Write a sequence for this structure.
């Protein structure tokens, strides 16, 4: 199975593609993984044919076998703040990867920022409203584009509600910590393979953290 990740820092923090690959391989899945990421990247930037990352995506699509799954991740606030801009970019990238033969699209649904993150006050949002707004936007786009969703934000929210979820966040209150990226990898594994991974050894998590992450995804 060939997997492509398209996104920004939420994807490359803690090297989510490599973490997902290792998790899949330890659970008996044969996969190859590629990624095209840039900090702060918005999907509509791929409409610029002269952009370096647009060219990189074209090269990746041309030089690799057909991708079985392509994960799409938008800038962390845009789907909620400006759905039309998000959908415009997502539609373009969906058309691009499907023209290259991609078989399945799956949105990497991100999460509301930590409750003490200044961005929430600036936008007049809460962790809950941002989480719900992102989930709604991604779900709406997925239905329109015939894509699936990996609901990482929902798993984040379950743990934030249960115990504060501080261990899921980078100190900036926005990006994922190592545990947050591990949670994303588990959600994505379930989204791709339709079942939970039997073992998480490659994630090298403390036993108590591994248990709560698995519980949230289940």
């Amino acid at each position: 199975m060939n997997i492509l990740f398209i996104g920004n820092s939420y994807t490359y923090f803690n090297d989510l593609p490599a973490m997902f690959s290792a998790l899949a391989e330890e659970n008996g899945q044969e996969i190859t993984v590629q990624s095209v990421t840039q900090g702060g990247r918005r999907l509509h930037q791929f409409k610029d044919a002269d952009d370096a990352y647009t060219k990189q995506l074209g090269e990746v699509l041309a030089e690799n076998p057909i991708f079985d799954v392509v994960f799409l991740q938008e800038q962390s606030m845009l789907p909620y703040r400006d759905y039309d801009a998000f959908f415009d970019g997502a539609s373009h990238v969906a058309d691009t990867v499907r023209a290259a033969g991609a078989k399945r699209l799956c949105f990497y649904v991100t999460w509301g920022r930590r409750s003490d993150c200044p961005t929430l006050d600036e936008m007049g949002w809460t962790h809950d409203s941002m989480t719900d707004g992102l989930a709604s936007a991604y779900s709406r786009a997925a239905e329109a584009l015939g894509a699936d969703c990996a609901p990482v934000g929902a798993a984040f929210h379950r743990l934030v509600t249960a115990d504060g979820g501080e261990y899921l966040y980078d100190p900036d209150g926005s990006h994922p910590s190592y545990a947050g990226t591990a949670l994303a990898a588990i959600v994505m594994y379930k989204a791709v393979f339709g079942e939970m991974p039997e073992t998480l050894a490659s994630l090298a998590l403390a036993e108590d953290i591994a248990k709560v992450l698995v519980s949230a995804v289940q």
Q: What stands out?
A: The mean pLDDT is 97. The chain has ten helices and five strands. The longest strand covers residues 2-7.
